[in-house]
Amino acid sequence: MQANFSALSPLRFLERSAAVFPDRVAIEHGSRRHTYAEFGAEAQRLAKALAARIQPGDRVAFLAPNVPELLIAHFAVPLAGGVLVALNTRLAAHEVKYILEHSEAALLFADTELLATVDGVAQLGGPAAEVPVVVVPDTESAGVSGTGAPEAAAAVVRGAQGRKRELYADLLAAAPDGPDLPWGVDDEQAPITLNYTSGTTGKPKGVLYSHRGAYLNALGEAHHQGFDGATRYLWTLPMFHCNGWCTPWAVTAAAGTHVCLRAVRAEAVWDALDDGVTHLCGAPTVCSIIADAEQAHGLERPLRITTAGAPPSPTIIRRLGDLGVTVVHVYGLTEVYGPYTVCEYQSAWDALPADERAAKLSRQGVGMVQAETARVVEVGTGPELRDVPADGETLGEIVLRGNNVMLGYYRDPEATERAFEGGWFHTGDLGVMHPDGYIQLKDRAKDIVISGGENISTIEVEQAIVSHPDVLDVAVIGVPDERWGERPVAFVVRGRGSELTAEVLSGHVRELLAGFKVPREIHFTDQLPKTSTGKTLKHELRALAAVEGAR
Amino acid sequence: MQANFSALSPLRFLERSAAVFPDRVAIEHGSRRHTYAEFGAEAQRLAKALAARIQPGDRVAFLAPNVPELLIAHFAVPLAGGVLVALNTRLAAHEVKYILEHSEAALLFADTELLATVDGVAQLGGPAAEVPVVVVPDTESAGVSGTGAPEAAAAVVRGAQGRKRELYADLLAAAPDGPDLPWGVDDEQAPITLNYTSGTTGKPKGVLYSHRGAYLNALGEAHHQGFDGATRYLWTLPMFHCNGWCTPWAVTAAAGTHVCLRAVRAEAVWDALDDGVTHLCGAPTVCSIIADAEQAHGLERPLRITTAGAPPSPTIIRRLGDLGVTVVHVYGLTEVYGPYTVCEYQSAWDALPADERAAKLSRQGVGMVQAETARVVEVGTGPELRDVPADGETLGEIVLRGNNVMLGYYRDPEATERAFEGGWFHTGDLGVMHPDGYIQLKDRAKDIVISGGENISTIEVEQAIVSHPDVLDVAVIGVPDERWGERPVAFVVRGRGSELTAEVLSGHVRELLAGFKVPREIHFTDQLPKTSTGKTLKHELRALAAVEGAR
C-alpha cells in the first residue's frame, strides 16, 4: 500500500460519515429513519450479500422510485465490486428488456410498485426474462428496511410465468458474516455505475461513470449547492437520472440528511418543506409544482432549488423568490454526470430590471468548480475545434471535457469515438457563448423550426411566451405547413385562475420577436407531457398538433 | 487530448474564478485591491516572466510575509512549471542559506522587510549567495503590485557585497508577450511546492507537495471551512506554513476574498474583523490575540477560526464564543498539507457541561472529507501496523495516509522510506484513539517528562492548567532534577487583570492530576516564545528555566 495515494471513490464518504456521525439521521422516508451508522451497516450487509452472488464488474440493475434501498444501492453495489444500473421507472417493459440485455445485468432489484413492468419483461421472454429478480417491498411505514409489510411482499414473490422471485429481506439475511468490505477501489477509473440515456432518437445508450468522476462530481455538487451537516435534501430528482446528479454521494459526504420521496406530489413536497428541507433538485416542473401548489406559503428556512432541463420561467423564479426560495439553473447531460455548468449569480445583476435579470438567470452558465471551461464550437469542423465568437449570437455546438465526462458508451466504442472527436465531448446541443463567458442553450439541434427558410429557435419562442406573468410552462414545436415548410405551434400552461387568451399572449410575443417567429396556433393545456427527467416530450405534442390541426 | 480526463491542479481554480468573477475583489491589502481578473492576469504575467528564466521543475524561493505577491506566486510559479518554496520569514540567514542550497533554488524573491536576511545570506557566501534575488517592495498603499514606492525600492536594489538585485516590477515588465500559459499540468502527481519543516531536531526537511494533493486538500478545506463567494478570509496563518494549509487555492476555488496581512497585530486584526472577515486560521496565539485585545467586542458577522498547534483553551473558546466566534480545532503536519483531522462538532455535545464539552473540543478529531481515517498504532512494530485499542487511554503513534500525504522528502529517499513504513506516514506524534473514533494528541514524543520513573505528558499537565479560567496560555517543560531525574515546570500567561497566584493554580491542578504531575515551579509571563507557526519554543523555556532555577 502506498502511503501517499488513495484511489478516489465516493464510497469513502459513507465510510467516513458512518464513523464520524453514527447517530445522525442519514435517511428519512415516511416514518422510517436510518442513522448514518445504520446506513453504513446496511450498505455493508447488502454488499456482502451481493458479493456472494456476483462477479467483480457485474452489472446490477435497480428499478425503483427514490426509496432508501436505491440510495443504499449507490454504495452497496460498487462496494460489492458491481456496477449499478439505475433504471428509469417510466420505461416500458420492452425498454427495460433492452437495457437488461444490453447491460447483461446479473440481478434486477424491483420495487413492488414496478412489478407490472417486471412481469412484462418476463412475458417478453429472452435473456432479460432470466435475470433473477429481488423484490423490494414498500416499507415506507416500517422501522427497518426490508422487514416491513412481509405478507404483502410475499404475495408478489411468485411473478409472471411462475418465475420465483426473492425478497430483499431474504437476500440480506443470506449475507455472509465476516469483516466489512473495504470502502474503496484499487483503480479510481474503475466503473461505478451505468446510466442509460432516454434514447429519444434510437436505442438508449449506456453511459459508464467512474469512481473518480463520481467522487469529484459529488464534491463539486456539495460545493455549489452548499451542502453541510445541517443539510436536509429532498429527493425530488430521480436517482435513476445521472445517479441523481451524484447527490447520493454528495449529501453523504457532507453528512446531511436524505429525505426520500416515492412520488413528487405537491402535498408531500410541501409537507417536507415545512419539515425544514434546505435543498432539492429537479426539472422546472418541480418548481411549478411547488410554486403553484395550494399549500404554497412563505418558508421559515431558506430553500435552494437547483433546476435543469429548461430555463426556469421568470414568473416561477419570482413566485418562488417570494416564498423564500433561491433557484439556481444548471445544465448537463447523462454523459457528464448530470450538471456541468451552473448559472453563477453575479452581484451586479441585483441592479438590473427584473426582465434583464431573468434573462441572465435563464442562461446555462459556466463550468462548475470541478469541471473545465465549456466551449461553443463551429459545427462540423471535424477533430479541429474552432470556438465561435463570444458574441451571444453565433450558434455553435456545446462541447465539454474533463473528469466529469463519462468513461464512454458501454459496448459502443464507435459511438464513444464519435462523441469524443477532437478530445471534447460533443453534446449535440446548440448554443451561444456570451461575452461574459456564460453559455446559453439555443436549441437541441432537432428542435429548430425552419419556416419560410428562416431558422426559428423554439427555445427563443418559448422564452418569449414564458416571460408573460400568467404563463407557467410552455413548449413550442414545428409542424408541417404547406406554404412555409414548417410553422411554430405553442402549448401553454397558464397559472391557476388565469384567463389569459391566445390573442393577448400573441400580442405579448409580437412585442418581443419578429413576426415570423410568433406562433399562429396557441393551445392551452393543463400540463405538458414530460419525460421523467423533465424534458418535454415534443413528439407527443407533434402528434397532438396533427390531431388538432386536422379538426 | 483525452475528453474524459483532466489532471487535477489547483491552477484551474484561478482560471475559473478569473473568468467567472472578473470584477469581484480577490485580494485586499491595505488600500490595495485586486479583482479576480487582475489576480489571474498578474499570475500569468509573473508566470511568463518566470518561464523565460527557469527550467521546468526548477525551485523558486519566496521570502515574504502574507503579501499579495506571495499569494500570486502560489499560482504563478507552478504555472511557469516551477516549484514554489515559501520560506519561513523568521529563519536566520544560515537557515535560509541551507534551504536555498538544499532546494537548489533558481531564484529568490524577497520582501523589502526581509532584505537583512538576504544580506546575511550573501555575506555567508557559497552557492546560496549566487541565487539571483528579486526584491518585492512593500506596496501596501500602492494601487497595483510592483509599481508602488519605486524610490524606496530602488535604494535596496544594490544589496550586500554589491550584488545586483532586480526589482519585482522590472521582472514583470520583462515578461514576454504571447498567449496565456495553460492553467494546468500533464501529470497531476507533478510537484507544485516544496515546504521545509521547522527542523527543531536536526536539519529542515523538504516536503514535496503535488498538484493532485493540493487540489484535493484545497477542496477539503473549502468544504470544512465552508468557503463560498461571500467568504472574506483573513491571512493570519502564514502562507509559508504548509502553503497556508492550501487555503490560497481553497479561497480562490470558492472565489472568496483574500484579505492579506503583513503582521498579526491585535489592532490590524480587529480592523479586519470589523470589516466583515468571515474566516481565519492560525495557532492558538491568534485566538488569544483576538480574545484578549482591548478592541474586542461582539461581532456583527459570524467568524470561524480554524486553529491548530495546540488545543484551544476552554477559557479562550468561551471568550471567543461570547464575541460570536466559532473555534474549530484541527491537527496536521507539514507532511500532510496542513490539517488532516478536524474536531467535528457533535450536536450531542450541546447538552454537556462546559468542561466536558471543552474536553471533547480539545481533541484532534477525525480525518477530513478528502483524507482517510487516521490511526493510532503501537510504536515500533515495524511495517506491520497494529491499532491500539480505541479506549482513549492506550498511547500509540498517530499514522496517516492518502492523497494528502506528501510525495516525499526532497532529496532524501531514506527518510521518506522510514516515514512511510508499512504504507502509512508516521507522524512521530503520540496519541490515543477514543471510542468515538476521535484521536487525541497526547504528546509530541520528545515532550514527555520522565519524573521518578513516571511518564508525565506535558500536554496533560498543560490542559489541567489551562482549564483554570484565568489562564490564557501555558507551556510545561521538563527540567533536570537531582532527585527525580526530571520535573515539570510551567510557564503561564494570565488573562488581563488576573491576580491568579501559583498557590491557587497549584491547588486547581492538584484537584485534577496525580501529585507527581503537578509542577512545583510555576512562572507567570506575559507571553510564551513561539515559532511563527504557533508551536511553543520549549527549548527557549528550558534555557529560561535553567536561569530561573540557578537564582
Automatic annotation (TrEMBL), chains A, B:
In the record, the note on similarity to other proteins reads: Belongs to the ATP-dependent AMP-binding enzyme family.
**Name by which UniProt lists this protein:** AMP-binding protein
Please list the residue ranges annotated as the AMP-dependent synthetase/ligase domain: 14-410
Source domain of life: Bacteria
- AMP-binding enzyme C-terminal domain residues are 460-535
> What organism is the protein native to?
Sinomonas flava
Looking up InterPro entries in the UniProt record yields:
AMP-bd_C, AMP-bd_C_sf, AMP-binding_CS, AMP-dep_synth/lig_dom, ANL_N_sf
Coiled coil: which residue ranges?
none
| A Pfam family that the UniProt record links to this protein | AMP-binding
Keywords attached to this entry: Fatty acid metabolism, Ligase, Lipid metabolism
Q: Where are the transmembrane segments?
A: none
